Amino acid sequence: MTVNRRFLLMRRPHGMPVPEDFRLAEAAVPAPPPGGFVLRNCYASLDPAQRGWMDDGPSYMPPIALGDPIRATCVGVVHASDNPDFAQGDWVMGLNALEDYSAMVPGGFTMKLDVSQVESPSRFLSAMGAVGLTGYFGLLEVAKPRAGEVLLVSGAAGAVGSVVGQIGRIAGCRTIGIAGGAEKCRRLIADYGFDAAIDYKGKTQAALAAEIGRLAPGGVDILFENVGGVVMDASLLNLARKARIVLCGLIAEYNLPEKVGIRNLWSVLVQEATIFGFLIMNFAPRFAEAAPIMAEWMAAGRLRIDEDVQHGLENAYPAFMRLFSGANTGKLVLKIADGR
Amino acid sequence: MTVNRRFLLMRRPHGMPVPEDFRLAEAAVPAPPPGGFVLRNCYASLDPAQRGWMDDGPSYMPPIALGDPIRATCVGVVHASDNPDFAQGDWVMGLNALEDYSAMVPGGFTMKLDVSQVESPSRFLSAMGAVGLTGYFGLLEVAKPRAGEVLLVSGAAGAVGSVVGQIGRIAGCRTIGIAGGAEKCRRLIADYGFDAAIDYKGKTQAALAAEIGRLAPGGVDILFENVGGVVMDASLLNLARKARIVLCGLIAEYNLPEKVGIRNLWSVLVQEATIFGFLIMNFAPRFAEAAPIMAEWMAAGRLRIDEDVQHGLENAYPAFMRLFSGANTGKLVLKIADGR
Fold it and tell me: What letter would DSSP give residue A254?
């Protein structure tokens, strides 16, 4: 392959992204920068956070510049190198972009991978990557669950949510998952071991709140929030005293030009609850301590992380949109090339 | 006086309370219950929390029953007693109601007062009461300010807000207050020592956010939130990383039948901020440790707590409404009787 296909951001989406916001362009394969290397990206992570990076607002990362490729965590194989530590054929993970080849320098999130220990290199984007570890650190280090507590997870069939529920169960919590549709709710219990599942589709805030209340009559001790909107407002009406809320995502809001807003913050006040804004990036130095624990749970059949692998840079747009249509279950990954 | 006038809740307000929601009725003066006493209520605290108690929703206290008098923290003088520890003429504080006489039993929030140490017994409803100590514990124990941090206070000219700003200054913070109107903003700086004041009146969220940003270009480390609504949303756009938000009140929302909602919670996420729902009640066992410190600050001229004293049970409705019209500055108190 002699061209570098790149999936570019051409304009900032207004609400839900449309195909015209992007363009698949061709460029020359870059040369290794001094002391760096070029990675053949094989798998790219597709995450709700990328939608935020497309907006021109303040965030924990600069917005993607117009004309630049969509920023993405990728795993791939070194294609050409000016650095003996990163030899041709080595597997590497880094914050690259939706493109065939990325010029990289060591540092930041860049790290070499031992792919011999996993069935697919994509595992470093799911279980052993930010998503799996978001569940691990967000639940265990931020919410600090105690056995017997009630854990409510929104977006529970998603990549992060399904991990949170399973680790919550390992921690001895009673776990309730909220997801959209009967099939996802079936999987919450059958595949991810939730004690109860709630289908939010077609329900008002009052109906949702009542359903949560029936399943958690003593209130919710930990709310792991991935969704926002009506689902979060219904959950807030069921907080136990001193509840902890891990604010991990607000996917219901990301594509709304006019945000809906959270109306039940008063419940946080009267229940003396705490909301923790949570980003996984700052736990990166501790990933190495968590990965073997996650691997052990997976080997023992206590933790299952599904991947939804879509194929081809040319499918980047429809693949990305699976995050918002409710189509995907498990960690969404775009396979760009084989690598091995 | 042989009758007991009582300010009753006759129906639950829909949005802003109207006079027809209440009735001033007359009843017989109660007899002391066994082991208890009857208090002649002299001063009653008027607080935004009372608006919440008028609603029929879940809260940290049961709603006021229809036909019951409006629950209120009161200080008064023992009128008749069946308990030697509470002798006729003793000053007592308790969670009573807007009425001339309340039958009380020891326990709960009931405590005897030494009024010789204060210029007016109403001080136990302001500086030495829940309001002053809300500022003390909310700022010092929940937000834990460090010298040099930026403290933003909404409702800054109110009873709690003005205390928070002054204690923040004592703690070495740079203090910015938000209030409604030029006169209140003048007082923030002249009377309460804020470093800067912002008048929110007539401003959009974007304009308010820009004004906060100019005054706190490095972001707000501590947001002491008394208001909610647009003011809170504008503040959330200016959080520093790891900001702490003390959620103490949401007065902008209390009278809205349809809550507006907070749209910028995403900023809590990306800044890894924390929102602490805060009630003063659970710090009640520690009031005795804070009161002498507050007294010392007041004596040294470092802390000023204004009282807005309204007069007469017959004025309970217009007095209470001063909380929402923006008319009151300082702690709103209803004087029911002289007592001394």
Answer: T
